[in-house]
Amino acid sequence: MSERSIDNSMKQDAFSKYHPAVNLLFFAGAVCLGALFRHPAYLIAAMCSSLLYFFALNGLKALKTILVLLPTLIFITLINPLLNTRGNTVLFLIFKRPYTLEALIYGAVVACIFFITVIWVNCFGKLFTADRIICLFGNILPNLCLLLAASGRILPKLIENSKQIATARSSIGKGGEKEAIKDKLALRFKILSALTSVSLENSIVTGDSMKARGFAAGKRTSFKPYRMTYCDWLAAGIMTAMLAAVFGVLLGGFAYAEYFPGFGIAEMNGRNIAGVLIYSGYLLIPSALQIKEKIRWSISRYGI
Amino acid sequence: MEHFKIRDLSFSYSGNSEKKNLDKINLTINKGEFVIICGRTGSGKTTLLRHFKTALTPYGKRSGEVLFNGVELEKVGAGEQAAKIGYVMQNPDEQIVTDKVWHELAFGLESLGCEQKSMRSRVAEMACYFGIQDWFHKSTAELSGGQKQLLNLAGVMVMQPEALILDEPTAQLDPIAASDFLNTVRKINAELGITVVITEHRLEDIIPYCDRALVMENGKIIIDESPKGLGKLLQEKKSPMLYAMPAPMRIFCEADGRGECPLTVRQGRDWLGSELGDNPQIKELTEPEFNKEVKAPALSLKELWFRYEKDSPDILRGVSLNVPQGSISAIVGGNAAGKTTTLKAVCGICKPYRGKIKIFGKALNRYKYGELFNKCVSMLPQDPKSIFVKKSVREELYEMTNDSEKINETASLCGITELFERHPFDLSGGELQKAALAKILLSEPKLLLLDEPTKGMDAVFKKSFARILKKLKERGVTILIVSHDIEFLAEFADRISMFFDGGILTTDTPQGFFGQNSFYTTAASRMSRDIFKNAVTAENVAELYLKNKGNTYEKVR
């Protein structure tokens, strides 16, 4: 495993201790497969495992995100039959158009796919801090990655500077707390213009500091705080094998699911059971690692 | 062996060709030397330092040449220069390019196209040498000023330079962080033999350890001496730079001492002891009286409690303080102790959840909006840049009032009349502070709050700043200063309060306060405490010395 753990600000997470490339492989696989499967069994597997990891990463705060997402999901489900009138089973007519059961179910499927994608991307965002992205793409796009790192520096500084200016204004009685909206706007504008000058001024120094350390003096390389270790290669190998199996099931057309004009969904034969199991196994890797680590930790603590 | 050689270097910024910013500089710096360049703001120190690196050389009219290892500097490739000549500037914040500490450390090596494996080991090595393993993965935004500047130094050192050029690296740091930084520089010079060229205002920590000190004036090098002989030369030339020198050297020169010039507190103490013995006749100067009871205080704080967020720890834990009218009072204390927060509470920016603030006898919350800042209270924030929002100093002043007579008067009081057309951001640290002071004075405050006013000022500037404060005091303005600069306060404040553990611990006169402390006190006091009582400034010590020798003391300047 790469020797470092993630930011202190995040909960302890076992999967993020692997090399960013391994993380990226996992999320690429999870998001692709999540978007391709229409079969309910696979959808349920993806829903459950993505949710599990989401909770493992965020704790109970995850509930808030899900509560926000829920109305969107219901909306997608209900709106689909209004746009799509195909399907055999007409439930009722609305705006003189048929509202079909098939379209409603398909709406739910689309909502599920949407949900799975959002959750995976969310987890991805949580894991992939700027330095992990830089580590992955540093060699291909060193300047773009530097830009990313520099903006990660500038944005917090801008916020800090604007606060400072606002406080300074208040300390000479020009903070505009109780003034008319027009004056308040004028004040905001003043702060903004001062902020611009300060930032431009500062950027000259930053530029000098970059030049002084040889920026643009030659071809850039990129420092990587992560290393591919035995564990990383092993994890990558296992994941690739599992991905290949699941893609095999998908591309072989064994997990077909048709909703129009009537339902035509592949039955759960041996191939599909194996497919769902491998698929769930793949998606559960991060959560499983986390649980394993937790158990290990408590055993080692109480086993003394 | 010659490392840098500068021959007949003259330079002027384009536009004003009659004024030369560098005038026929001839200078040789040998390998492994530790050279200090001192001089007043605007004497050309930075301009000279920038000629040590082609990438930073300013645009303008230039003649003469700079040789690095015997080769003309411009012919040395950019990559080689980046690696071999390290350059650290004044602002710790703006020099940092990236968001993570590890990335900042690696930045230089990345630019040079260093290969992964050696980059790894060099970064690791530097992180250990500078003791930054613990914050290796932190965001750069989380670091303190001192840590940021150390990171900047480490980010340069990682390229394994042969020479370090440092341009006022500690101007923005508090005294403890500053002496940490300078000690590291010293260590680098002593242990690794790296050539160091540094400009500094804070000379106490480095003058004793440098090999040569250069003094610049109007773009010329007027003195090139070893530190031992520096004091006498400055005195001969009547240079105001003497005032910036370490206290032992100043005392020695002002007392017209003979023999070898002391540089450190220990040497100074030995010298004083050998001259006067342990028990001189006159041991103390008449001490100003200290009234503990303050009648009708300008500002009275009673048991203030405050915290920034609901769950964060209390910053102010029972702050009580009385500031007498027409005095210059000061609060000293550690970093982030709550001194600035106290000032903010007086301005009503922070609202204490317990306790009482009375300004001129009237409770703070009884002041109507606008009333407080009109002819009553004004605060100069720590970074004076942040109160400027306009394009010229004149416009800044007119933002406060339309009375041009008042503006002219205040400007001449603060000595900024000739800066009217300049952009605020083009001013030097000291000028900026004065312009900011003028701006806030236009609201005619009776109570003036100053947050670290002497940060980034050179010693001579400090003196003229103190003169302004004294004039204000004569007009009856009450001044409350929060500062780390104990040397400044010992000389100019009437009362000093110590802030510690969320409250004001003691209040006393500078003589009483620094006379009692044995660590947190001025160099003059540390040097003379065994022999004299309550001598806290270099002038005090020199005066007592001369009195004991039977001479009268007159202020030279």
Short description:
The complex is a heterodimer of chains A (304) and B (557). With 304 residues, chain A is mainly α.
What does this entry look like structurally?
The complex is a heterodimer of chains A (304) and B (557). With 304 residues, chain A is mainly α. Chain A has two domains: 15-134 and 224-302, no CATH class; 157-212, no CATH class. Chain A is built from nine helices and four strands; from the N terminus they run αααββαααααββα. Chain A has a two-stranded antiparallel sheet. In chain A, strands 3-4 form a two-stranded antiparallel sheet. In chain A, a hairpin with a 5-residue loop joins strand 3 and strand 4. The longest helix of chain A has 33 residues, at 270-302. Chain A is extended and about 75 Å long. The relative contact order of chain A is 0.15. The model of chain A is unreliable at 1-10 (pLDDT under 50). Chain B contains 19 helices and 20 strands. In chain B, the strands form four sheets. A six-stranded mixed sheet of chain B has the order 6-7-8-3-9-10. Chain B folds into three domains: 2-239, P-loop containing nucleotide triphosphate hydrolases (Rossmann fold, 3-Layer(aba) Sandwich), CATH 3.40.50.300; 246-289 and 531-557, no CATH class; 299-530, Rossmann fold, CATH 3.40.50. The two termini of chain B are 41 Å apart. By secondary structure, chain B is α/β, with parallel strands linked by helices. The interface between A and B is large, with 58 and 71 residues.
Low-confidence stretches of chain A: 1-10
For the sheet with most strands of chain B, the description reads: 6 strands, mixed
- CATH top level of the largest domain in chain B? Alpha Beta
Kindly report how far apart the N and C termini of chain B lie: 41 Å
Biggest protein-protein contact in the assembly: A-B, 58 and 71 residues
Helix content of chain A: 55-70%
Give the biggest beta sheet of chain A: 2 strands, antiparallel
Average predicted local confidence, pLDDT of chain A: 86
Number of helices of chain A: 9
- How many structural units, i.e. domains of chain A? 2
Q: Which strands sit side by side, in order, in the main sheet of chain A?
A: 1-2
Order of helices and strands of chain A: HHHEEHHHHHEEH
* N- and C-termini, Cα separation of chain A: 25 Å
Number of strands of chain A: 4
What would you say the CATH architecture of the largest domain in chain B is?
3-Layer(aba) Sandwich
Strand content of chain A: under 5%
Low-confidence regions of chain B: none
The proportion of residues in beta strands of chain B is 15-25%
